[in-house]
From TrEMBL:
Matches recorded under Pfam families: DUF2255 (PF10012)
Gene3D superfamilies: Electron Transport, Fmn-binding Protein, Chain A (2.30.110.10)
Protein name as catalogued: DUF2255 family protein
InterPro entries (alphabetical): Split_barrel_FMN-bd (IPR012349), UCP028498 (IPR016888)
Length: 123
């Protein structure tokens, strides 16, 4: 299994957002969308601001694959659904810490959409 390098983790962690292109059913990438990303330990996570209704999220859940571009990192990823409450609690805190300056208007929907948390695993 491939893992993130320390350099990749740092670059992505410090970026404001990443571009995620979920794969279509034929494996070709969809149009990339900007998404907030947070780090927890040696793992990276994203959530859908629009919850499960988000088009990119529906595509990501169908294919479980995508491509990211962020901070000079361009990589194929596997998108893994996160259901662990403890991990989600840490991701909530990470969103509040990293993006809290945007206020409740943006943070509250990200925390409320914890059922859309996806771990980005490099391929």
């Amino acid at each position: 299994m491939t893992t993130w390098t320390n350099d990749e983790l740092t670059r992505i962690e410090h970026a404001e957002e990443l571009q995620l292109a979920p794969a279509r059913s034929d494996g070709t990438p969809r149009t990339p969308v900007p998404i907030w990303v947070v780090r927890d330990g040696d793992d990276l996570y994203v959530r859908s601001f629009r919850g499960s209704a988000g088009a990119w999220y529906r595509a990501a859940r169908a294919s479980h694959e995508g491509r990211i571009r962020c901070g000079g990192v361009d990589k194929d990823v596997t998108l893994i659904k996160v259901t662990d409450a403890g991990v989600n609690d840490r991701i909530d805190a990470a969103y509040r810490t990293k993006y809290g300056r945007y206020g409740a208007r943006y943070i509250d929907p990200m925390v409320a959409s914890r059922d859309t948390t996806l771990k980005l695993a490099p391929r």
